[in-house]
Amino acid sequence: MITDPSDRLSSWQGGNCCNWEGIKCSSSGHVVVVNLRNPNPDEIMINVNEEVVSNSNNTFDFALKGTISPLLFTLNHMQHLDLSFNNFMLSKLPTEISNLTKLTYLNLSNAMFQDSITTQFSNLTSLRFLDLSCANLVPDFSSFSVSLTFPLRLDFGSLSSFISYGRISSPNLRWLEGLRDLRYLVLIGVDLSKASESFHWAKPISSLSNLMSLRLSNCNISGRIPTVELLNLTNLSTLEMSSNALTSWIPDLLSNLTTLSTLDFSGNDLHGHIPYLPQLERLSVASNPAMIINLVSMFSVPWSKLTFLDISFTGVGGTIPPSLSNSTSLTSFRADGCSIQGSIPSSITKLKKLSVLMLNDNNITGQLPVSMSSLRSLQYLSLFQNRLEGHIPISICRIPSLEYLNLEWNDLTGRLPLCILQLPKLSSLYIQRDRLNGNMPLSLFQKSRLEEISLGTSGLSLEIDDQHQPFVQTFQPKILEFTSCNMRGGIPEFFSNLTKLVVLNLSNNSLSGAIPYWLFNLPSLSILALSMNNFEGFIPPMIQLKSSRFPTIVNLARNNLQGPIPSQLLNVNVIDLTLNSFVGLIPTQIGKVPGIRSISLSGNKIHGPIPESFCRATNVLQVLDLSNNSLSGTIRRNLGNCKSLIYLNLGQNKLTGSIPKELERVTSLRYLDLSGNDFEGFFPAVIENFQDLEILKLAGNRFEGRIPKFIGDLHQLRILVLASNSFNESIPEELMKLENLQYIGLSSNNLSGPIPENLDGLKMMMKRENEATILGYAYSLKFTGAQLEIVTKGQTQWLESVYSYHTGFDVSSNTLTGKIPEKFGLLSGLPLLNLSHNNLFGLIPKTTGEMSSLESLDLSYNHFTGEIPVTLTVLDFLQHLNMSYNNLSGRIPSGPHFDTLYQDGTAYIGNKYLCGAPGGMNCSNYAPSINETVENRYDQENVLFVVVIFLGYVTGLSGLFLFLYLMKDNWRNMYWRAVDRIVLKIVNRGS
């Protein structure tokens, strides 16, 4: 039974079927053509959430739905059958199709069949065209670039494979052997994984000697390129095997296929180089990172027919050779992410037919060639994320064909040539993250025909020159990205007429006033980002967004908005209302929103419990941030249903009770913050299940008991903050084996025993990070970062963003005993070490001076003895030092940088035996050794001690006293002073 929502089959009435729509008959009255192809197929694709969305403007579904009647296959004179782009409800391929032996054209692509191919097509020996492509969807972000208030390069690598609905498979290809007349074979998305396990899997293809086009993209083919079989296809013009798992090199023998004009091996694991294939017109080897392409060598020979070349994301390096211009037929050159160096050669302007030039994400330097204006056919110019400098040449305005211009993430300076806005065909302009300057009236853009505009953080200031300027009907943009453009005033009224607007990003400006309600009702809006402004007032209780290739986002964070949280969110994937003044309860409806992936309500005035509606069984929630509010009650057990949860932040509320066992099901959790509440009990056992956990913050609660040994099994852990609880017993040695751990915060507990001796496992603390990597998670085009409170340089510091170089070791305010482990010297990348307010004793190790990155060292309020190691004077980064309230002695060491620290002596107060410290001993008592280094004095005392012991054994006590009586006073004083020091050391070591 077929349903026909478009009413296409309404003409199928009466006895003369030759007059029906989609039917054609021969002169003898036999049906020879049945064309039921969907005339308006929905342009569907995958967004960054790996969800299937529509990218078309179809408001009506034209697809036929249901199953095919067997009567269709009784038309045995049929030569042409097209059922593509319909919905046959995952039904099997009709076996009766084998009756249509006169078929020359068969198209069943994207029709939602699901089956395994065996013998269904074996009898169709007259076929010349066969398309069995499945409904495969790929993400399309080729012309998309939008920043949401953070510098982030999005990685769509996880979406490189297709998602199939109605997948067809074929365990082998023997069914092809009888189809000798085939010219076009399209099996895109057909699963050939099992077939390709055989070494000669492609042998049946080699029998198709008339084949002109072979398309086997995304078929899960693995192994080598079937060279021998392909060489039999002497009429082959098009060969596509992209998005598979081919692992060989491109064979030179393909040059023998003189008819071959199109070759696509992109998205595989190929290696080697590109062989010389002079017959090619189109070549794509993109996304084969192991391929090494030498452009100088490649273009040392002529590629006279080549029109399309895509080598993106391969190993190129080097520069673009001037000889590229010898390929005068080239119309499209794409080389993104190839580590290309040097400048763009001026000879490239000889490519008069060039329409697409994409060199994104390279290391290209120098200026844009002024002569680029001679590329009169150029339509698409994209050079983002390079190191271009200088002004944007005004000569670009002399390229009348230019439709897309992307120069963002460079070092371009000066003003934007306003003539660019008047280019007759320009629809997309991206110049964010440059270093331009100057003011631009918003009204200038209304006079253009731009559809995508991104100026964010470019250095330009955008002026709303007339709040009530008349709307220009021809201005209907899809993307407006004006982040950090110094905009002031309210949102212009003419925005209400932007019916095609999909993305509106006005974040980080000085906009004010109320957000107009009509903004939430724009018919095409998918992303609304107004964060970091001065908006105030209420927002409507219902927000509805439109599906697009992007996830749907409402970001109103960091404003002065108030009132209740909106209760009705329709088609919203991400909502961020952080740091406003919203009040009341969290609406129960929020947790029921289908497809919602992120809820951020942090830093408001919300109270009451966490709604029970959160985390229904079908949820896809990845981020839940309810921190810094006044929430009360317990953590709901149903949070265990949030199996997709990556980020959970409930910190700084008034939550009580214990952590429910049901949370153990959230095994994907990477960030957990429960700090600043009133939780109690032992260390939560459920945390053992979070093997991907990177950040754990439980500070400021009433947890007690020991820190479990399983903490050492969380190998991804980077930040651990358990401060201000009642944990006791010793620090587990297993903690020191975590190679990724960069911050340990165990202060203000009841921990006892020694600091573990073996610190070899703390690899992240052993190196100083050269590159700053921010800790956080990118999802749905939004970034959620880690935050951390640390005590450094004697002050509490709140880090809004945590980078990989923010390492620290803080075990202060406990009851730890023992000595400082010598192996602390291995932690040369550690800037913060706080061991204060404990019962540690012994000497300060000389190896502390090997901690070359140390910026803050606090050893105060312990029982350390002996001298301050002179090795500390070589710590050039040291800015904060606190040795106060110990039992240190000797002289404070001297050094050019060390002498500048705390000249008032406050870092040493409370050490009565420390020479030069406030309240300490007078340095004049150390006159005999005043010009000696600390190390030399220590050696002299040892020598004198040996001499004294020797004399005592030789002469006995009586002889010793007689000797001392005859000595001069200054020698006698030196002896007893040495004895006092030795006795003091023995006492301290014994304690």
Offer a quick outline of the entry.
By secondary structure, this protein is mainly beta. Helices cover 7% and strands 23% of the residues.
Characterization of the model:
This protein has a domain at 1-139 and 155-246: Ribonuclease Inhibitor (Leucine-rich repeat, LRR (right-handed beta-alpha superhelix)). It is built from six helices and 71 strands. A hairpin with a 5-residue loop joins β2 (23-25) and β3 (31-35). α5 packs across α6. The protein is globular and about 120 Å long. 42% of the residues are buried.
Which structural traits does this protein have?
991 residues, 13-stranded parallel sheet, Leucine-rich repeat, LRR (right-handed beta-alpha superhelix), 33-stranded mixed sheet
Largest sheet: 33 strands, mixed
Count of β-strands = 71
The CATH architecture of the domain at 1-139 and 155-246 is Alpha-Beta Horseshoe
Low-confidence stretches: 136-165, 927-971, 983-991
Terminal-residue CA separation: 92 Å
Helix content: under 10%
User: Rg from C-alpha positions?
Assistant: 37 Å
Per CATH, the class of the domain at 1-139 and 155-246 reads Alpha Beta
The gross shape turns out to be globular
Mean model confidence by pLDDT = 86
Strand content: 15-25%
Q: How many H/I helical runs?
A: 6
Sheet/helix structural class: mainly beta
In oligomeric terms, what are we looking at? single chain
CATH topology of the domain at 1-139 and 155-246: Leucine-rich repeat, LRR (right-handed beta-alpha superhelix)
CATH H-level superfamily of the domain at 1-139 and 155-246: Ribonuclease Inhibitor
Keywords: ATP-binding, Cell membrane, Glycoprotein, Kinase, Leucine-rich repeat, Membrane, Nucleotide-binding, Receptor, Repeat, Serine/threonine-protein kinase, Signal, Transferase, Transmembrane, Transmembrane helix
Family: Belongs to the RLP family.
Catalytic activity: L-threonyl-[protein] + ATP = O-phospho-L-threonyl-[protein] + ADP + H(+); L-seryl-[protein] + ATP = O-phospho-L-seryl-[protein] + ADP + H(+)
Transmembrane segments: 943-967
